[in-house]
């Protein structure tokens, strides 16, 4: 009868070996694929977080005209209204992120992609855009037109 | 679930008939069975190359002004980028190594003999493609070492009589190694070679499948005289699981090599800087490189380089056509081809070691 004993224990032993082996293989496969998944995530682009930027020189813009400039990593729009006042807006449409432009015949900001319209303060007034454009503060410092992020609050 | 999936496939095309031959496939068991694993390991390393190659393509940018910087970016900024690149480099080298070992095992077991001549031929073409992969991939990081190795390598191509110069201009995309060369090599490396290689691998595997595994001549005669001794195992799952274990070990070796000895990037190539000391090709070109270095400038009335290239070309051609010369398998012929195999192996190893020691 003693010879049958191992046969009785075997299923439990086999199960243990299976769990250890399977767990080990599974663990190592996870270890192989973890770096791959992390690799797929692109490293963040260094946004140098410029809080202000020189958009142009005084006299570069005439009344009722505009200019696109770089603010950090994204485009922004500096415009001089017909009354000679400077305004700076984010040029990224709040609908699907096209770059907007100033329409000097409508005196409005227009997005060509889906015909979205904003007024000169960046408020969405017509078309698909869901939110107003972000707006920046404009200062004249010496010869430079300086655009800066508005202080929160 | 699995049965229902199989039924679904069977109703549309005869799935069971398609995989039927695979089920019937057997692998002979004898003392030299371990050599059967090498082709599979080479295939596995190729699959690793495809996977890591695609990953590298996510960040790599070809072009003389960007290539080095993008590889630098992969290695320093992208998470685990150093590991992916290191694995790609190590797997490339191990793949060449296992392919060479596979080839020599086929020579010494004379597995190329009738009816497997075409299997050998497709395998040799695959080896040449793998070396093409190595040569073109070496340049892609655009570092100093690769730049000059490519300059020398393509210059050697230029020595081939009659078509050499045109071939060199074709490879370089001009008279010199420039950004144009990099663009070409990139195209070869990621489009032309992978396409051709995949096709040839399919042919190679289909031929292996069609003819079944070769049994070494000695074992074959023994088995023929006493058929009771024939031992075989089923390919699926018995051999496949063993092969999987070999792949797993290969992956372990690969991961360890890549992590312990990460591949270096070196310095950015400067076409107008003098070549630094210690310029050398990848190790699997070393035996040819070293031979060409040792041939005198003039052999009789011809250029030493040209003679070397012609000799290597002829030897490579004869080697590629080996099964067609070794037809009858008579005693004397067998010894001759065995001797040729041993000579080739010894020559390659000796010249490679010499190349690394000689500086």
Task: Report on this structure.
The complex is a heterodimer of chains A (153) and B (359). Chain A folds into two domains: 2-40; 52-148, Rieske Iron-sulfur Protein, CATH 2.102.10.10. Chain A has 153 residues and is α+β, with helices and mostly antiparallel strands. Chain A has one helix and ten strands. Chain B is mostly helical and 359 residues long. Chain B has a single domain (25-215, 234-266, 278-358), classed as Cytochrome Bc1 Complex, Chain C (Up-down Bundle). Chain B has helices at residues 2-12, 15-24, 37-57, 67-76, 81-108, 117-139, 144-157, 164-172, 179-211, 217-225, 235-260, 283-294, 304-320, 322-325, 331-358, and strands spanning 26-28, 232-234, 298-299, 302-303. The radius of gyration of chain B is 23 Å and the shape is globular.
User: Rg of chain A, please?
Assistant: 31 Å
Mean pLDDT of chain B: 91
CATH architecture group name of chain B: Up-down Bundle
- Terminal CA distance of chain A reads 87 Å
Task: Return residue spans of chain A where pLDDT drops below 50 for at least 5 consecutive residues.
Answer: none
Helix/strand class of chain B: mainly alpha
Q: What topology, given as strand order, has the largest sheet of chain B?
A: 1-2
Tally of individual helices of chain A = 1
Please identify the top-level CATH class of chain B.
Mainly Alpha
Overall 3D form of chain B: globular
Name the poorly predicted regions of chain B: none
Provide the number of structural domains of chain A.
2
The proportion of residues in beta strands of chain A is 25-35%
- Can you tell me the CATH superfamily of chain B? Cytochrome Bc1 Complex, Chain C
Largest sheet report of chain B: 2 strands, antiparallel
- In terms of DSSP E residues, the strand content of chain B is under 5%
- List how many beta strands of chain A DSSP finds: 10
CATH superfamily of the largest domain in chain A: Rieske [2Fe-2S] iron-sulphur domain
The name CATH uses for the topology of chain B is Cytochrome Bc1 Complex, Chain C
CATH topology of the largest domain in chain A: Rieske Iron-sulfur Protein
